[in-house]
């Protein structure tokens, strides 16, 4: 019997979680009752038209992530919630949310197609919810997400209600990568990823209070940034603390060596005062942190996980805020 748990192994070898967020332009979150099969969109409640759309998007290699979501009421509600999060252009704090309430899950594919063509459906709904937290509980895909994700989800609901955060919603989610960091979550609309969470670090993330150094252990990276820039952004978070989460950011990779061992990256950010800064950094492959690892419980062989480190960093003020700001 296979008793290998990828999350135990990752902890044991001291793998760093940063740089493990996946980068997408669009998240399409479809409310669907559990249980889900290992390939979530083959689950019994997923209609054929939606399955075909997901396959079409995959084949076209579009930067779109489809996920199934559910909460404790999903089985009982008459309507299906569809959430679409679209990355904002230019200086941004993450994604823009579009929320739809559909008569049933059969309507999802048509509304998504319409959205991707640039028009909004009549099912769009105004809501006071400003934050959606997704916790991977997809145990049929990887047992670590059942083992750590389910209890975390249960306690996280209590944490949210104790803090009386009425604008925050929490969902069970199908697999979005990084199960070896279970319990793992995405915080939308920012699109930031976290792993190896407990209720204390979760509380700090929710309230942006307490010691921001806890992010050193649990922050997987920001999904709007390519991997090397996720590592640079974490350095800036550790420098600016929770204030950083209020800043707007734009990024680009300026140069990359052919072997990907060296990256020259630029991150521009705007503070709440309007002051604008550009940070350039050279990131190099960190041989001491780059590992051969079995990335999931069922992986038959190890694969290389490349980690970067910030070798040098320049920070330049582009525009200072006016004195009245």
Give a structural overview.
The mean pLDDT is 87. This protein folds into two domains: 6-217, Glutaredoxin (3-Layer(aba) Sandwich), CATH 3.40.30; 227-319, Nuclear Transport Factor 2, Chain: A (Roll), CATH 3.10.450. The strands form three sheets. A nine-stranded mixed beta sheet has the order 4-3-1-2-6-5-7-8-9. The protein is built from seven helices and 15 strands. It has 325 residues and is an alpha+beta fold. The chain has helices spanning 6-12, 48-59, 108-116, 143-162, 199-207, 215-218, 227-240, and strands spanning 26-31, 64-70, 80-87, 95-102, 131-136, 168-173, 185-188, 192-194, 219-222, 248-256, 262-270, 276-285, 291-293, 303-305, 308-319. The chain starts with 5 loop residues before the first helix and ends in a 6-residue tail after the last strand.
Strands across the major sheet, in which order? 4-3-1-2-6-5-7-8-9
User: Would you tell me the overall average pLDDT?
Assistant: 87
User: Might you state the CATH topology name of the largest domain?
Assistant: Glutaredoxin
Name of the top-level CATH class of the largest domain:
Alpha Beta
The helix fraction, in percent, is 10-25%
């Amino acid at each position: 019997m296979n008793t290998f748990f990828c999350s135990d192994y990752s902890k044991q070898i001291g793998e760093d979680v940063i740089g493990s967020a996946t980068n997408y332009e669009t998240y399409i979150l479809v409310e669907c009752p559990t249980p889900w099969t290992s390939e979530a969109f083959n689950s019994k409640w997923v209609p054929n038209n939606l399955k075909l759309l997901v396959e079409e998007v995959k084949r076209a290699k579009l930067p779109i992530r489809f996920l199934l979501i559910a909460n404790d009421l999903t089985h009982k509600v008459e309507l299906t919630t569809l959430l679409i999060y679209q990355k904002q252009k230019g200086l941004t704090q993450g994604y823009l949310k579009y929320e739809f309430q559909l008569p049933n899950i059969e309507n999802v594919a048509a509304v998504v197609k319409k959205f991707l063509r640039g028009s909004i459906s009549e099912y769009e709904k105004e809501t006071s919810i400003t934050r959606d937290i997704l916790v991977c509980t997809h145990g049929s895909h990887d047992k670590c997400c059942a083992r750590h994700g389910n209890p975390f989800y249960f306690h996280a609901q209590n944490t949210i209600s104790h803090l009386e955060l009425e604008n925050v919603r929490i969902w069970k989610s199908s697999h979005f990568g990084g199960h070896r960091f279970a319990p793992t979550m995405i915080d939308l609309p920012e699109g930031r990823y976290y792993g190896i969470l407990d209720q204390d670090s979760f509380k700090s993330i929710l309230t942006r209070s307490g010691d921001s150094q806890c992010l050193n252990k649990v922050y997987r990276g920001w999904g709007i940034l390519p991997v090397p820039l996720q590592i640079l952004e974490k350095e800036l978070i550790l420098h600016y603390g929770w204030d950083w989460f209020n800043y707007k950011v734009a990024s680009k990779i300026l140069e990359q060596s052919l072997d990907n061992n060296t990256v020259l990256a630029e991150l521009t950010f705007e503070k709440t005062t309007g002051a604008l800064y550009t940070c350039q950094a050279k990131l190099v492959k960190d041989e001491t942190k780059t590992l051969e690892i079995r990335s999931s419980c069922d992986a038959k062989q190890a694969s290389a996980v490349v980690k970067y480190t910030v070798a040098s960093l320049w920070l330049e003020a582009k525009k200072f805020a006016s004195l009245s700001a």
